[in-house]
């Protein structure tokens, strides 16, 4: 559509205009006018402008003229009347009065769909969220890598690097090998870690080496007994017991049938369980005097300590209970 | 509530919702979209659901060339909404397009230009279709005011400025002073009427029917509003009404000039009425400075010469007249931020 201007310039390929260069628009117009033998009054009549305005145009005295929009229009009309290139005259004017050059940039036809600059705000916020998610994921992954349980129903709180986990058994008192090393060396044995351990659906589903928390040395006599894949009766409770140095109050955690719960049990600095337990399952502990527990999804879990049911409700927030039990009192 | 949040990630837009073209000015960036106001709607065979097949330039290419299942329509007529739902869809498409690749669904503050002759019902339709298209805040501004701002006219001075905006559907003439409209009038004559006039001229004189797109091309390539020293010619194809077969023939600019006489005289008479109605002080200012032409119609060759001869006043074609209204809307948004939202806004 922008052909009007081109139409003007095409029509005006006269040789005369070539001789004028680096001249002010006014001088150029006056020279062209004088070359054609026109008076300022005649030009003013043609352009419907006051003669004073034409004189001001020729004198480059733009102070006496209306704002730049009008001046550009007058220059175009004048140039067209004299058959000289209007675009060049206007360009000269804008060079002479850079302040008056059109501040709003001219229509830039968009060849392909408009692509405005990205709104930086959205990207900063989006980037921030992404970084936060990555950081949270990393922290979770590190925590999960230790326990070997990558998914949990309830988001369990990320924990710090735990010390090597050693759960003492009555038969195997050795503590020389930390759990991590043991897991890597004999993953197969770690799957069926103990004879008492029930083959719960969770552990069956996790075909890959799911390190149990108990570090059992290969030399364990029990290992060979446990190796056959005959699952122990499902209702047999898992027990975590220490040598009966003295009688501790038993802690029993029951996960109902059809339920899944994230169970974390620590006794002092020692972590006993940190895994997703699929019901029905019963876990018993009786080798420490106090335990710290984190139970995700309390709906499926009952806890008995020292023979009494523990009321989880006061410790529960968002279905996650965090509390500790102790039999010192 | 989410509109407010999404608004943080959207820019202010000024939309020139024109009969022929829709232009969007993105604040701080300039004109980012200039597309024909055409929507192609596809309807399933058994009269089932309708869906948008194309919008903008792609849809315009379909105008008059569609099969039975697709309808290419122009949802605006005479500067106002003729099909509310389709206009809303079109706006939605355009707003999304200028916010491409955004994380959030855009919810910009939008300023839409309305013809000064539009009724309250028509304005409300425009406002609601912009809201329906996702705008969080909609302001309306009268087209001549936006056009004058876009042409950098000194509208805030205590002196009269006259602007004639020749759009696709309407032509608006207004006298402005101190950021307000002193007189305004709108005639439903614009680029579309020029096209129709060309079609009618060709049918009467050649017995040949040409399409709208052809007529528009003829207008752009060899249309003129005032006799010129140079005569342009153009070869055109159309359907011969008597024989019913396509024929090719040549049109020249003098013939087009003759065909355009009727709509042009309508615009000139509206302009003369405006000059008659203008208070004398302001009329004197206009006479001294001249009339500024904006809108796509100002690109018609020699239209400034015609108006100059008819009115005896200086006439100036604004730079880049096609985008004046959209740019002026953007400027109005800035001024509204500086001086308060009710500076130009009309209800």
Note down, in words, how this protein is organized.
The complex is a heterodimer of chains A (329) and B (347). Chain A is rod-shaped, with a radius of gyration of 44 Å. Chain A has helices at residues 3-11, 25-35, 40-47, 51-58, 68-81, 86-96, 120-147, 179-185, 187-191, 201-205, 221-226, and strands spanning 238-240, 251-255, 260-267, 270-278, 281-285, 290-296, 301-305, 308-309, 316-317, 320-326. In chain A, the strands form 2 sheets. Chain A has a 5-stranded mixed beta sheet, with no helix packed on it. In chain A, strand 3 (260-267) and strand 4 (270-278) form a beta hairpin. Chain A has 11 helices and 10 strands. The model of chain A is unreliable at 1-20, 103-118 and 148-233 (pLDDT under 50). Chain B is built from 12 helices and 18 strands. In chain B, strands 3-2-1-9-10 form a 5-stranded mixed beta sheet, sandwiched between helices. In chain B, helix 3 (84-98) packs across helix 4 (120-132). Classes of the chains: A alpha+beta (329), B alpha+beta (347). Chains A and B meet through helix 1, helix 5 and helix 7 of A and strand 3, helix 11 and strand 18 of B.
Condensed summary:
The complex is a heterodimer of chains A (329) and B (347). With 329 residues, chain A is of the alpha+beta class.
Question: Which structural traits does this protein have?
Answer:
heterodimer; A: 329 residues; alpha+beta; five-stranded antiparallel β-sheet; disordered N terminus; B: 347 residues; five-stranded mixed β-sheet; 12 helices
Could you estimate the helical fraction of the residues of chain B in percent? 25-40%
How do the SSEs of chain B run, as a string of H and E?
HEEEEEHEEEHEHEHEEEHEHEEHHHEHEH
Percent strand of chain A equals 15-25%
Radius of gyration of chain A: 44 Å
Strand line-up of the largest beta sheet of chain A: 1-5-2-7-8
Characterize the quaternary organization of these chains: heterodimer
Please give the largest β-sheet of chain B. 5 strands, mixed
Proportion of helical residues of chain A: 25-40%
Number of helices of chain B: 12
Strand arrangement, major sheet of chain B: 3-2-1-9-10
Number of helices of chain A: 11
Largest interface: A-B, 40 and 53 residues
Terminal CA distance of chain A reads 93 Å
* pLDDT averaged over residues of chain A: 67
| Largest sheet report of chain A | 5 strands, mixed
Structural class of chain B: alpha+beta
**Basic shape of chain B:** flat
Mean pLDDT of chain B: 88
Uncertain residue segments of chain A: 1-20, 103-118, 148-233
User: Which stretches of chain B are low in confidence, meaning pLDDT under 50 for 5 or more residues running?
Assistant: none
One letter per element, helices H and strands E, the order of chain A comes to HHHHHHHHHHHEEEEEEEEEE
